[in-house]
Specification:
This protein is 25% helix and 20% strand. The protein is an alpha+beta fold. The longest helix has 15 residues.
């Protein structure tokens, strides 16, 4: 069963969003690594206390941890377009995509997320967004994470199993609910 509800009239429509331009790969260089070091070094004491299990690390520990993060990020693939910045990390066993808007507003357009997944990971790859246990929660405000299987054609053992169904228009009755049953 799928439920579709018209948004209230005061909500922004997708037409108010600029069209997404194609993504361009961002080349990484020494400047990128230096900026990353500076950003991490400028984090608050509370930030590092969270990283180090509640204790304040020494300067040497903090610098070592930062260098480790910079080395890890060297394998990331970064893309940008007019709206989004996307970082792809090949983690085992899944591909991790971190997505955020340049203006740091929430990503509210599901179609944009689908287009990002299809363009940067692949149209026949499936991806999921995880809502973790509170004990594993990492909330960096308006960053979104997709996890995709690296094999095109792989299907998760959940989700709809029937053929493609796309509603290009919302129901005409204001505030009405539409129930669509599928195989």
């Amino acid at each position: 069963m799928i439920l579709a509800e018209l948004p209230p009239r005061h909500m922004a429509s997708a037409a108010e969003e600029p069209a997404m331009e194609p993504f361009q790969r961002v080349q990484r260089d020494a400047t990128t690594a230096m900026e990353q070091r500076g950003t991490l070094l400028a984090q608050s004491a509370e930030y590092f206390q969270n990283v180090f299990g509640g204790r304040t690390p020494t300067l040497h520990e903090k610098l070592s941890w930062i260098e480790e993060r910079v080395r890890e990020s060297a394998s990331w693939i970064t893309y940008r377009n007019n709206i989004y910045l996307v970082v792809i990390e090949m983690t085992s066993p899944l591909i991790h995509a971190c997505i955020r808007r340049h203006d740091r507003r929430p990503c509210t357009d599901w179609n944009h997320m689908q287009q990002i997944k299809s363009e940067l990971i692949g149209p026949e790859h499936e991806a999921v967004e995880l809502f973790p246990a509170e004990s594993r929660l990492i909330n960096t405000t308006n960053e979104y994470h997709l996890w995709a299987h690296p094999k095109s054609g792989f299907r998760f053992p959940f989700g709809f199993s029937w053929n493609r169904f796309v509603m290009n228009q919302t129901p005409s009755q204001t505030g009405s609910m539409l129930e669509v049953a599928g195989g």
